[in-house]
Amino acid sequence: MDEEEARTRLLDAAEELFYAHGIQAVGMDRIRAGSGVPLKRLYRIFPAKEALVTAYLERRDRRWTGSLREAVTGAPEPVGAVFDWLERWFSEPDFRGCAFQNAYGELGAGGPAGVLDAVRRHKAELRALLAELVPDSPATADELLILVEGAITVATLSPGPEPARRARAMAERLTGDGPPPG
């Protein structure tokens, strides 16, 4: 196994375990066992748990944000497409909320700097993506961010698509998109 394959296997195991069980509950030995990568090699690639957690979050951010961006690009109602995408995500059997909210909630404001930077960058990228959908209204982008984050939190506590549907209805009223009130 070369370095790239070892890194990928480590990140795959880290993502599965951290997302399902939490960062603090999963030790490096469990990552080693889940990945099949020897502990010595794990520490050569990721010298500290903070480096592994940061890399896991950065990779998840690229995939998550890329998937969302793909869903809204060219959509006839891009704001609605955000909530359609969330609805599909919330319906996945392994949905456990936002990995970034979870990491921040678990580690707090005093957590490792690299991890907190990854969380903040992710949220800034999400806000920037939403701002692209409503370029004439920074305040609306901020309100959409609150709707997205709120829907994610509610779906974490009550899994299923309904929080995305309710948030979409609010977003449509906010932006004037969608059907007129009945």
UniProtKB/TrEMBL annotation:
Matching InterPro entries: Homeodomain-like_sf, HTH_TetR, Tet_transcr_reg_TetR-rel_C_sf
One MF term in the entry's GO annotations: DNA binding
Protein name, per record: Transcriptional regulator, TetR family
Natural source organism: Streptomyces lavendulae subsp. lavendulae
UniProt entry tagged with the keyword DNA-binding: yes
Top-rank lineage group of the source organism: Bacteria
PANTHER family cross-referenced by the UniProt entry: TRANSCRIPTIONAL REGULATORY PROTEIN (PTHR47506:SF7)
Alphabetically ordered keywords of this record: DNA-binding, Transcription, Transcription regulation
